[in-house]
Amino acid sequence: MRRRSAFGERGGNRLVMKQNRIQEKGARAISFTAYFLTVFLIVASFVPMIWMISSSLKDVQSIYSFPPKWIPPAPQSITLLIDYSESGQRDQAFYELEAAKATWFTWKKFQNLSIGEMKVIGLKDGRKLFSSATPAYIFTAGRAAIVPANVFTDEVMKLKIPVMKDRAYWQFDWYDEGVPLTGKEQAIVREGADAGGWKPMVAQIGGYLKQDAVYLNGSLLAASQSSNWARVFDNYAALWRLGGQENGINFMRAFGNSVFVNVVTILLHVSIGGMAGYALSRLVSARWSVWLTLFFVATIMIPEIVILVPLYLTMEKLSLVNTLWGIILPHSAWGIVIYLFRGFFDQLPGELLQAARIDGASELRIYTRFVVPMSMPIFTVVGVMSFISVWNEFLWPLIVARQEAYWTITVALYAFQSGSLPQNLLMASSVVATIPLLLVFLFCQKLIERGVAWTGVKG
Amino acid sequence: MSVILQPQRRLDRAVRRRKFKFPWTACFFLAPTVLAFLLFKYYPLAQAVFMSFFNYQVMNPPGPFVGFGNYELLFKSSYFWHAFRNTFVFAGLYIGLTFWVPILQALLLNEIKRFNLVLRFLYLVPASAPSVAVYVLWKWIYNPDYGLLNDLLRHVGLGPYGWLSDPAMAKLAIVLPGMIGGGISVLLYYSALQGISQETIEAAKIDGAGPWQRMRRITLPGLGFIIGIQFIAFLAGIFLTFDPMYVMTGGGPVNSTRVLSMLVYDSAFKEYRFGMAGAVSMIMFVVIGVVTYFQLKFSRT
Fold this sequence. Notes:
Distance between the termini of chain B: 71 Å
Low-confidence stretches of chain A: 1-18
Number of strands of chain B: 0
CATH topology of the largest domain in chain A: MetI-like fold
Oligomer: heterodimer
Distance between the termini of chain A: 39 Å
Structural class of chain A: alpha+beta
Largest sheet of chain A: 5 strands, mixed
Strand order of the largest sheet of chain A: 4-3-2-1-5
């Protein structure tokens, strides 16, 4: 043990290497305990995260089932083959309406089944006339607009088809003269025609279409159901598609708001915060510097909640309530930012700056040309630390952004969970909200460690 | 004579001018920040004090002066004292259940040589979820019908519990998520541990102190300073906690998780009694001030 400390870690010859392995009493025990407990604690902290991801991949049926399962079930693809040999209709508009009704009305009727994708193929005299495929995320995004109620009539769907085309929910292939069926489709005709061989989900849908449904002009020839893992991420796609809508659930807009608020706040911090820190460190006399620093840093002791109400009233006077600037501007007064900048600039070598000053460079020029490039570490640390705090911020945006259009992700998540967003989409939103910080942690871990040491030990 | 004096006089004037030169550059550098602090920190603070003495009216400020009326009303209301007590109970729970977790995690990390960087990153991963997302997630885990936790407990023959709907358990349920995963604080303590001089540790080794003893006698006391600072910040932070209660329970069930910060929010933005909100926030300010004062006094002796 003593040799080890005397020779250091990398002993030159074999003998020392061997003696390095001599361990003191208890070293192995403590090392084992440390590894074991650390791994245990990390695994424990990952359990909720994994549950969040698992929940975000589930459909509306499996998310509300007890006992809960860790692995989401495979999304099911439903294929319906509808025969129009009896019908004399030839024009495309008629079949577009048929495809839309077969997809959306059937899906609405069975909206609590976890359908991953709905394919509808129209046949006439054994030849394929049209095909359409609608993935689950389109239905999730469009349900409220296209099929708000169980009213299944031609008139309703005629009104909705332009909406569907406008919002790109429309996926319809038309074969004017009809084309032969592919091998896969022929297999469905062979195996799916007999209702006895249907799997449970398609049995419900097929039975309904054969007996009770009155909205289709064709007759159900065959149906099939198959697992389709490609649709497992549809909750995320649905969030994206919901983002295009004006009202209702719009997570992507909240995400965009958050990004804007964060970027502008960081720019504010590194621009005016950096300048103020530099002025305190180099431009004012020592006495002024002490008092001004106190003026800035003392505000760290003012809790947010204490000034919350008057700050809101101030924002109202400035008519900044319900704007993103209302969220951003109060961030320009963060004592810790000034403190960090001042502390860093105090340690810069003064000679270089003095030399530049003698050469007649203006202070602004010295700052931008010499100080900023030399101080990149502090600028990035402040940027990253601001990002972590502002991305997490909840109370202030909750108060200032009273209208949906100005919600940040945290406010949106809160509103969604108290609203009507299903749990699986809510969890998908949470996962998306986590990604930016995860990326920051992944790429800036060293910087964060440095920043944490600066803010923690000093402040 | 006068010809010779001329440059000297000019120099004098120049010197004098430089002496009284207004610091335009410094002002240019400082002005935006000073303005921001005045507008967004000091003015609201003064306003908060001012407001608390009025039955504040937004339409026609400041409304009738009531002196200490708001405070009197608060001190007489059991609702306020209930929230006051809850705040302290939460403080106790947070200290008892969560404060020491990152310290322990950092101490363990300090004993680990291999994969240290990776393990540190893995500690950060759960912390990358925005706190509101974590609360929303835990609300889902606590769900009485479909929740994960009740299902896990069912396997060991416990429950089912109504975590967030049972007044006796709601406080614990809110604090519990903080117990797992220290997040960024782990890095803070870890970096402080790196600052402890290796020489001291080597010296202790030579004197025959084992690893356990070194941890207890050198490493942990070496952290004392940073733990003290963190504790003050932690405590002040707890008294202000708003997000977890607001997101997970909204103050219920039966007000068992209603804390002072929520009282500020409710009285201002739900009941529009801004004067009352000002009074509650002033009381919070004083409470935090007093607690911090005793902390500092206690840690100095």
